[in-house]
Specification:
The chain has 405 residues and is mainly α. It has one domain. Helix 4 packs antiparallel against helix 5, helix 11 crosses helix 12 and helix 12 runs antiparallel to helix 13. The chain is globular and about 60 Å long. The termini are far apart. It holds the Pfam family Gate. This is Sporulation integral membrane protein YlbJ. Keywords: Membrane, Transmembrane, Transmembrane helix.
């Protein structure tokens, strides 16, 4: 059995070897690496940045103006009994559902830094408040890849119900640990109490509107730049592992497991790719015509819930800014992936297959405006990204100048 020193040395050697192999792969496959990097950049530029930025900025403003404290008082009777987190967890959950990964983790860390939640409560929040946003599920997956808006409803229901299930299960996480924040008890809550908490929170913040919105834009764009780096990195990593044949080797074992549980073995390789990067995997799954349609939905639902290693790395870097541990988050992602994959089966038979067997026509009637809205978003998204990056450079320049004045 290896002692601690030998184990540490082995880990260092493995990290060094993996990094050297990655560097050599970049040298031997420069064209493929560039193409993968461009794909990752394109997804960040056209989808991730413009879809997440408004939610990040608004969340910063809501925190600064005390609205989060207001909601925290009102939602305490709901969030505490169900999920064993303070009322402000309702705000984190709502913003996580609306804006998508990794907003839930980012807001959980913010609440922890502000002293609003304990470490255990932060781990519970980070565990179930991270999800794919509706725009990505309906637009990119249902419309963009499967060309069927009806599937968005099935995938979204499985995904968000899975969130609730994980949140309820995670109320038992750390139950033996000492909680820093206790319930308010059974005293009736009043709107005036919530308003007083909001007012006091705004006074404690003390920033003017101009200062607050400038900080919100700068902080949000810095986080999105970090996210973009991870997306590009894992897009390249996924391509290099594919070229080296490593993904194919792993897919052999996975295909055997898929065959045992009744899933199409042809989905093994796209599934492995999806574990690295959701978008790439989902696109490959939608193009695997040899697999049954239900198998495609189950595998897509799992990787949507799991999040992919790209998102795991993003969250790990965000959680590292606090004492919230990453391991509970990883367990929560696996549980949600498993739950969402299981939920797709009854939802499929309830809402889709009884109406039609034709994949192209679908069973759940969704307004055509969803597809039109998605294409309109893709048209204007590059201008949104470019405009806010210019604004970020301006704000950063002004901030640097103030430091030297």
């Amino acid at each position: 059995m290896l002692d601690a020193r030998n184990s540490s040395q082995l880990k260092s050697a493995l990290f060094a070897i993996a990094t050297i192999v990655l560097a050599l792969s970049l040298v031997f496959f420069p064209k493929e690496a560039l193409e993968a990097s461009t794909r990752g950049l394109d997804m960040w530029w056209n989808v991730v940045f413009p879809s997440l930025l408004p939610f990040f900025i608004v969340s910063e403003l809501l925190i600064g103006f005390g609205v989060v404290a207001f909601l925290g008082v009102l939602l305490e009777p709901l969030m505490r009994p169900l999920f064993k987190v303070p009322g402000i967890g309702g705000f984190v959950w709502a913003m996580g559902l609306a804006s998508g990964n990794p907003a839930g983790a980012k807001l959980a860390v913010q609440m922890r830094k502000l002293g609003k939640i304990s470490q255990i409560e932060g781990e519970r929040l980070a565990g179930f408040t991270n999800s794919s946003n509706p725009l990505f599920i309906f637009g990119a997956i249902a419309v963009g890849f499967f060309h069927n808006p009806a599937l968005g409803m099935i995938l979204a229901l499985a995904h968000y119900i899975g969130n609730i299930v994980v949140g309820f299960l995670f109320r038992f996480h750390g139950k033996n640990s000492e909680e820093m924040h206790l319930s308010r008890g059974q005293s009736p809550l009043k709107i005036i109490d919530a308003f007083s908490a909001m007012h006091q929170e705004r006074l404690n913040d003390g920033r003017t509107f101009g200062k607050l919105i400038g900080d919100a834009v700068r902080s949000s764009i810095e986080t999105l730049l970090l996210i973009g780096g991870f997306i590009i990195l894992f897009s390249v990593l996924n391509q290099l592992l594919s070229l080296l044949g490593i993904l194919s080797l792993i897919a052999v074992s996975v295909s055997t497991c898929f065959a045992l549980i009744g899933l199409s073995p042809e989905l093994a390789y796209p599934f492995i790719s999806g574990l690295f990067e959701i978008t790439i995997g989902a696109q490959m799954i939608s193009q695997t015509t040899e697999a049954s349609f239900l198998s495609q939905l189950i595998v897509v639902s799992f990787i949507l819930g799991f999040g992919g290693f790209s998102i795991q790395a993003q969250v790990a870097s965000i959680l590292a800014e606090s004492d919230i541990r990453f391991r509970p988050f990883l367990l929560a992602r696996f549980l949600q992936g498993l739950t969402a994959a299981c939920l797709v089966i009854p939802l499929y038979y309830l809402f889709y297959e009884p109406l039609t067997d034709e994949v192209s026509s679908g069973g759940v009637r969704i307004p055509a405006s969803i597809e039109q809205g998605w294409h309109f978003f893709l048209e204007i998204s590059p201008y949104i990204t470019f405009s806010f990056l210019c604004l970020f450079i301006l704000l950063k320049t002004m901030h640097i100048k103030k430091r030297f004045v």
